Amino acid sequence: MRKLNITVVVGIVVALIGAGLVFVYGHSVDNKISAGKQTVDVLVADQPLGAGMTASDVVSHVHVAQIPSAYVVKNAIPAAGSLSAPQAASAVLVGAVPQGGQLSYNDFATSAASGRLTPSKGNIALSISTPVTSGVARYLQPGQLVDVFVTYSSGGSSSGGGAVASRTKLFASGVKVLSVSVAPPTTNGTTDNNANTTAPDGGVIVLLDLSPINAEKVVNAVTLGSIYLAYTTNPNDKTPAGATPNDVIRSNR
């Protein structure tokens, strides 16, 4: 009988210890869940923000949102005043931020630190504006390489008097991107012909690191034709003669 009583007592003690451990664990989990649900003030983008925008420009395109702490990005910026401070106003975005994206101090760097606003030795920095599609849909980042294509419309005549066919040609390869930013909106979605860096609504402005010779080609392409950028990892892409309408519709049979 005594042995049975001891067994019962031990069983009760073990059950109490187990219940206590379950209670402590459950309380710890509840605390973690509650902590994760607590909201934190974080700056959120009102619209897509392009790399290269200064902190002072970003201030007018953000608002403060309350985000559950479990989902707050590392080093999140809590208030617009943090971007308006004199020591931060000249900082620039090192990458694009989507609409609704949280802003972090890690998203900004000084122009000198980012290094993207300085062209290579012997090169020049040239700004061009493109629609979203031909500007790689805003996916470009500073430091990446692009191939530059141009399409000239049909019309005019050659030196021999014959008609000139439309042609698309890759004419510059492995061009470094120095900066990418969202083009400022224009009245009625039109382009101001006197402002070379103004693109149609929804476009992008890309700053390219170009040799003077390639810069001449880019200016010519923008002025007389349509320019397209293509993201590449190969600085030596080449095409023999470009493509004409016949190359597109010609049968391979």
In a nutshell, what does this entry contain?
This protein is an alpha+beta fold and 253 residues long.
Explain this structure.
The chain is α+β, with helices and mostly antiparallel strands and 253 residues long. The chain folds into 2 domains: 39-114, Type Iii Antifreeze Protein Isoform Hplc 12 (Alpha-Beta Complex), CATH 3.90.1210.10; 124-249, no CATH class. It has 6 helices and 9 strands, in the order αβαβαββαββββαβα. The chain has helices at 2-37, 55-58, 81-84, 111-114, 212-224, 245-249, and strands at 39-45, 62-68, 92-93, 108-109, 124-130, 145-152, 167-182, 204-210, 226-232. It has a 5-stranded antiparallel beta sheet with strand order 5-8-7-6-9, with helices on one face. Strands 1-2 form a two-stranded antiparallel sheet. The longest helix has 36 residues, at 2-37. Residues 156-163 and 188-200 have low confidence and may be disordered.
